[in-house]
Amino acid sequence: MAVFKPKFITFDCYGTLINFDMAGAASAIFADRVIADQMLAFTTDFARYRMDEVLGEWKPYSAVVCQAMARTCKKWGVEYKDSDGAGIMEACATWGPHPDVPAGLAAVAKEFPLVLLSNTMNDLITHHVPRLGAPIHRVFTAEQAQSYKPRMRGFEYMLDELGCGPEDILHVSSSLRYDLMTCHDMGIKNKVWVNRGHDPANPAYGYTEIKDIGGLPGVVGL
């Protein structure tokens, strides 16, 4: 079978490319309030509340993080301070790519324009794009689209801005829930799941699985 050659390879950024360690940041901040053997459950709830917070109308990502953290603390009966959310946002700006990302991206960037669609703010992503190790053609944020994934509006905004249709892109993400399930519903047939352990596999969504970005060149025949 012929290898699909997309007009654009589009990516989720945080988690897929950038090592998005929200759990680590929260664990450090709450080490004095949550006992160690409960921290995984605490940070898992934090992740679930972040998902819930992005399903409504757009708001700044700092508000998403702070409100999700406050809800997590309420559930756990833990004190929440405004400095907690601010500390997590400060940590976000320091994170770099997974080790496999720069070389993998550089290999595919030789032939395909690379595009980011990210649940972030315009100013936050400026810290991370230069760390990816490859030229990025376009960057689209939730702030620009006024909508967060997994809602469809961000994908629609990206496709409109690129002047292409669902059939023209290959979308790459480590998250089924934020990205690939929505892609499936929108008719984006060409999808790659980077299995970083964020979600359980579900092949019914019709993706190609790779273990890291180093496997991406092979997907597009390089």
UniProtKB/TrEMBL annotation:
SUPFAM superfamilies assigned:
HAD-like (SSF56784)
- Pfam families the record matches: Hydrolase (PF00702)
Q: Return the InterPro entries for the record.
A: 2-HAD, HAD-like_sf, HAD-SF_hydro_IA, HAD_sf, S-2-haloacid_dehalogenase
Kindly indicate whether the keyword Flavoprotein belongs to this entry: no
**Which keywords appear in this protein's UniProt record, sorted alphabetically?**
Hydrolase, Metal-binding
User: Which Gene Ontology terms cover its molecular function?
Assistant: hydrolase activity, acting on acid halide bonds, in C-halide compounds; metal ion binding
Q: Which Gene3D superfamilies match?
A: 1.10.150.750, HAD superfamily/HAD-like
Name under which the protein is recorded: Haloacid dehalogenase type II
Q: What is the scientific name of the source organism?
A: Rouxiella silvae
The opening ranks of the lineage are: Bacteria, Pseudomonadati, Pseudomonadota, Gammaproteobacteria, Enterobacterales
